[in-house]
Every structure is written in structure tokens, then in C-alpha cells.
Design brief:
By secondary structure, the chain is mostly helical. The chain is built from 22 helices and six strands. It has a two-stranded antiparallel ribbon with strand order 1-5. Strands 2-3 form a two-stranded antiparallel sheet. Helix 6 runs antiparallel to helix 7, helix 9 packs antiparallel against helix 10 and helix 16 runs antiparallel to helix 17. It is globular, with a radius of gyration of 27 Å. The N and C termini lie far apart (66 Å).
Length: 611
């Protein structure tokens, strides 16, 4: 109390002196700032520019991962598309599912948030470029490295805007005054601007990443290939496809895909362990190695890596003072896939005739051997503490694997575990595989494969603190792009050029790496086959909606039969568990109504189908 009393006396004396010093109320209230924080005063040294660039990276990170189905990362990733949606129990049995398209509107928060994230990313990129011109650099190379990254991030963001919304307002530099008269550029202009920015980045940036998490020329060329594909569809100019082939080829030449085992779990002489699990994984394969902690970056020998979002390891995270919520949503949404993705095994019930009086109602709950399955019903073997926010369509989980895919390593039990045994020791089926035929029909679509790229099933990469819940995958990075996708971009460009034999060759490179006996012929190649291969190779990694939406032109009212057909045939709450008719009349996302209403100085036109 004495200290508190002393502090109160000091504060009272200070306030009294201040009041006596003022001759009037006006004098007391007059603002006399010592400094003014403006763009001009914000940049004094180059480290401040890099800090601004880091903010642009942060917003870019928010475009990747699956923490929540109603966030920008999930929308861009394809929630509501032919591949994914929210689990039926989470979204009112489809009534609030993303593919219940009748509920979409110009006030939709998910599309609005995605629009916001993209423009916030552009804003920080523009601010970085302004700041770079205001400070002294140690060398011109240091300055170019920073500005190249800003150009890349801005080009990427405008590419996504053009693909998803078509023509949008073009903001080429930082705006520090109130503006309410934005107008839309054309989609062609947006694509060309994205190409301009990506070319500026490619010209200035190093050939390979100068630091883990930073880009090199490869990812610039990768997105240039995609941008030229999009521009070709929009304009009908076939020369764009030839240019796409050129950029894709340069990426592939510099970043060959990994074709043999590599990295931290591939060395038989490595006798160490992690979390009590041996480092060496004798039954591993090259696809499995791509997604192991410590293997993501180009610096580790992974030539396939183009751009990798970095994740903090446990010790680094603990030193930041951040809360766990940041990992779910605000900072690194791609580090919580064990929580958001995968079946909720513990909630799936036996069908009535297989239920036993002394056993649990679920094959994956009850009397679980904690020594064999640390964590019990939320053990790593069962994918951890998933709450099933994101679920797979029947197309992704089953249809694309129907037929002769037995040898494809992307669908084996290591990379896509889909034969999960009963772990309840009290049930007579303990230790045997449980299939959809064994479970209550209401859970039929809740049982689908896990993926090693999302969930570390053997517990090797988990920190010991996670064994009770298995949620956060500390230190597990995420691919923004890898050259396997570049092959499929080039295959698409070859298809559009009528060179189906070359398209087949590129697809077969991916299938050969996957040890897939089923090779594609030139006659079989079409855009749907390429989308199927993207789903096999890049599920959960690619930005699915942008790839679908760029298949159409916005001219003459817009047309995109590829996207509309695939939604009709595969979307979860259109095809698998029908709630929506799937008769969508739009070919682009809606411009958020809130920005149309705020733009009082000019008309910001809505996209067709949303008026």
C-alpha cells in the first residue's frame, strides 16, 4: 500500500502542475504532436522496408491452409468446389455448406474476406516499393532483392484477383488519401498487369531462394506460365499458350521434380529418433519424403520446391508469446491440419448389427491401447484431434482412384491412409479394417482418406507436448508451389495448342514418379483429365477455385462450361449429398457489395449473375 499511495501522490502532483500551466481549456486541449507518422516518416532505414515486406508475406500466408472452411485460404484452396466442403455435421447437413450455392450472395463474408486479404497484400507490396525508394541501401542488389519480392507478391495477388473476380480496380501504388471513385479494369488488363509485375520480379530476383521462405526465379516463371494460360483463355490468343510453355519449361529445367528418396527419413544410417520414433522410415517413398519436416526447402536438396511458407518449430513458437489461436487463424493457418482436416473417427458409429454391448459405439473410441496409440482416440494414427471442418467430396476420395491405381504411391496406405483398423480392444473386430459397409449409413460420407501431407500418422514429427491431443504440427512448412504443378500447367498449355502427345508426356512424368502403372495416351488427354491429375497430385495444396475460374472468359457476359460442369458433377452438396441444384449462372465470384456501396464517386459494376 505505501508504494501505491506514493504513486497516487506523484500522479496527482503531475496533473495539478499541468492544469496550472494551462491558461485556458483551449490551450490544454490543443494538440502539439512531437512527430507525425506518415509514409514519408515511416522509412528511415532498409530494415523498415523488409519489415513491411514481412507484412506482405504474412498476408500471403493467410491464403494457404485449411484452419477454417470460411476463410480465404480455404476458399482459394477449393472449399465448395469439386474437391472439398465443410463436413455435413459442421454446416447443418449441407444447408450452410459452401457448395449450397443458393445461399451465396454479394454479401458473402468468405468471398469478401478473400478480396480483402488480396488487396491488403497488394497494399503492403506497394508500400514496400514506395519505401524502397526512400531509404539508403548497402547495395543496389540488396534493394533489388526486396523490390523483386514485392513485385512477385503483387503479381501473384493480381493474378488471383483476375482469375476469381475478372476485372477489378487496379491499384498500382500506395494510396494515402480517401478514395471513393474506383473503377474496374478489364480482366485482360489485370492479367497483363500481373504479368508485368511477375516479369519485374523474375528480372531482379536470384535464380534460387536466397533464404528459406523467400522466392527465386522458378516461382516467378511458374506463375507467369499460369498467367499466360489465363490470358490465352480470356483473349483467345494462342500465342499466350506458347509463352506459357516457355516459362513452364524454364521452371522445370531449373527445378526438376524429386524422383528418389531424400531427406531426414530416407537415410538407413540415421539411427536417431524424434518423439521416440526412428528417423529412418524403411517403408517410405519419395512422395512421403516431400512432406516431412526438414525436407520442404530448396536448401535441403529438394529441387522441386519453388516457394515454401515457413512454420515455426515448438521452441520458436514458445519464445514468441503468441497464443495458440494464432496458429489456427491469424498467423499460420497451415500448421493445424490435424485439427481441421481428416475424418472425425471417434464420432463415426458402427452400424446397428455390428454394435456390441461391452464395446464402444465407435470402432475408433473406447478401450484404446495408449502404449500402441498414444493419445487414445485422438492419436496420430487416427489423425489427431480433427473436428472435421473440411471434408472431401466422393470425387476426391474415391472416384479419381477407381480402377488401376493399386501401385500409385500417392494412394498407398502411407500417403493416403484409407484402410483404418478398429482400435477398440473391447470389440471383436479389434485390429481389422473398418469400411463404409461397417458403419452407420449416416456417417457414410464422413469416412474418407487421410493424407500424409496433412497429418503425420506415425507420430515422428509431433512434439511430445502434443501426444494428448495431436493438433498443432510445429515446424511443418507448406508448399505455395512446387514444380510438379508446373508440369501440369505445361500439359494444359500443350493441350490448348493441340499438342496432346506432349501433354500426355508431361502427365506421365508425374505418374512415373508416383510409380503409377496406368499411363495416359494422347487420345485420352482433355481438360478434365488434367484436373483429375491435379487432384491426385496436388490435393489440399493447389488453389482449386482459381484454376477452375480461369477456364472461362469474362467477355460477352462470361462463359465457363468447364467449371460449371465440374461443379454440377462433383460438388459435395450438389452431387454427393444433394442440397443445392448446382445450377449456377455466374462464372466469377461476386464483387463484395460493401465496396460497391462505399464507392460513391463512381460505379463499381457487379459481375454477371450477381446483379
Amino acid at each position: 500500500m505505501p508504494d501505491m499511495k506514493k504513486n497516487l501522490l506523484i500522479v496527482t502532483a503531475v496533473i495539478t502542475n499541468l492544469l496550472c500551466a494551462c491558461s485556458s481549456d483551449e490551450a490544454f486541449l490543443a494538440e502539439k504532436p512531437k512527430t507525425r507518422y506518415t509514409i514519408e516518416s515511416a522509412f528511415v532505414q532498409s530494415s523498415q522496408v523488409d519489415a513491411t515486406l514481412a507484412s506482405a508475406y504474412r498476408y500471403t500466408c493467410l491464403m494457404f491452409g485449411w484452419a477454417y472452411p470460411n476463410r480465404p485460404a480455404a476458399l482459394l484452396g477449393g472449399i465448395g468446389s469439386d474437391c472439398y466442403d465443410a463436413l455435413n455435421e459442421i454446416c447443418g447437413w449441407g444447408q450452410n455448406g459452401q457448395s449450397h450455392f443458393e445461399r451465396w450472395s454479394t454479401d458473402d463474408l468468405t468471398t469478401e474476406r478473400t478480396w480483402d486479404i488480396l488487396y491488403q497484400t497488394i497494399s503492403f507490396a506497394n508500400l514496400t516499393l514506395r519505401g524502397a525508394e526512400m531509404v539508403k541501401w548497402n547495395s543496389n542488389a540488396e534493394k533489388e532483392a526486396a523490390t523483386a519480392q514485392a513485385h512477385l507478391i503483387k503479381g501473384f495477388a493480381y493474378l488471383r484477383l483476375g482469375e476469381c473476380w475478372g476485372g477489378v480496380p487496379l491499384v498500382t501504388e500506395i494510396i494515402d488519401v480517401v478514395k471513393d471513385d474506383y473503377v474496374r479494369a478489364t480482366r485482360e488488363e489485370i492479367y497483363n498487369y500481373a504479368i508485368k509485375e511477375l516479369k519485374l520480379a523474375e528480372a531482379q530476383i536470384s535464380e534460387y531462394p536466397a533464404q528459406d521462405g523467400r522466392p527465386g526465379k522458378g516461382v516467378c516463371r511458374h506463375y507467369l506460365a499460369e498467367a499466360y494460360l489465363a490470358l490465352g483463355v480470356e483473349t483467345g490468343d494462342d500465342s499466350c499458350y506458347a509463352t506459357a510453355v516457355e516459362y513452364a519449361t524454364r521452371t522445370i529445367d531449373a527445378h526438376p521434380i524429386m524422383t528418389s528418396r531424400f531427406g531426414v527419413r530416407a537415410d538407413p544410417s540415421n539411427t536417431g529418433s524424434n518423439n521416440g520414433v526412428p528417423n529412418y522410415k524403411p517403408d517410405g517413398d519419395v512422395y512421403y519424403d516431400l512432406f516431412q519436416i526438414g525436407n520442404y526447402d530448396y536448401s535441403t536438396g529438394n529441387t522441386e520446391a519453388l516457394w515454401v511458407m515457413q512454420a515455426m518449430d515448438y521452441d520458436t513458437f514458445q519464445s514468441t508469446g503468441l497464443t495458440e489461436d494464432h496458429l489456427y487463424d491469424n498467423t499460420l493457418p497451415y500448421t493445424c491440419h490435424a485439427w481441421s482436416c481428416g475424418p472425425v473417427f471417434r464420432d463415426i458409429k458402427w452400424k446397428e448389427e455390428l454394435q456390441e454391448p461391452n464395446a464402444n459405439a465407435s470402432p475408433w473410441n473406447g478401450d484404446v491401447d495408449q502404449e500402441k496409440y498414444p493419445g487414445g482416440y485422438v492419436c496420430a494414427y487416427l489423425g489427431g484431434s480433427s473436428i472435421g471442418r473440411v471434408a472431401e467430396t466422393f470425387y476426391l476420395s474415391d472416384e479419381i482412384w477407381a480402377g488401376a491405381w493399386e501401385d500409385d504411391i500417392r494412394y498407398n496406405e502411407l500417403n493416403s491412409p484409407h484402410h483404418i483398423v478398429c482400435v477398440d480392444r473391447a470389440h471383436s473386430r479389434y485390429g481389422t479394417v473398418v469400411t463404409r459397409d461397417d458403419i452407420d449409413p449416416m456417417f457414410y460420407y464422413n469416412l474418407y482418406p487421410m493424407h500424409s501431407k496433412l497429418i503425420m500418422q506415425d507420430g515422428w514429427g509431433w512434439h511430445p507436448s502434443q501426444e494428448a491431443e495431436h493438433i498443432r504440427e510445429y515446424g511443418r512448412d507448406w508448399y505455395m508451389a512446387r514444380s510438379a504443378e508446373t508440369y501440369l500447367l505445361r500439359a494444359e498449355a500443350y493441350l490448348k495448342l493441340g499438342k496432346k502427345d506432349l501433354a500426355a508426356n508431361d502427365i506421365n512424368v508425374i505418374r512415373t514418379r508416383a510409380n503409377c502403372a496406368k499411363k495416359v495416351t494422347a487420345a485420352e488427354v482433355d481438360i478434365d483429365l488434367i484436373f483429375d491429375e491435379r487432384a491426385r497430385e496436388l490435393c489440399y495444396e493447389e488453389h482449386r477455385w482459381p484454376q477452375l475460374l480461369r477456364q472461362g472468359s469474362s467477355k460477352n457476359g462470361g462463359s465457363n462450361p468447364v467449371m460449371q460442369r465440374r461443379i454440377k458433377e462433383h460438388a459435395m452438396y450438389v452431387k454427393d449429398q444433394p442440397v443445392s441444384t448446382g445450377d449456377i449462372q455466374w462464372t466469377l465470384f461476386p464483387i463484395p457489395q460493401v465496396y460497391i456501396d462505399m464507392n460513391t464517386g463512381a460505379v463499381l459494376e457487379q459481375n454477371p449473375g450477381w446483379e
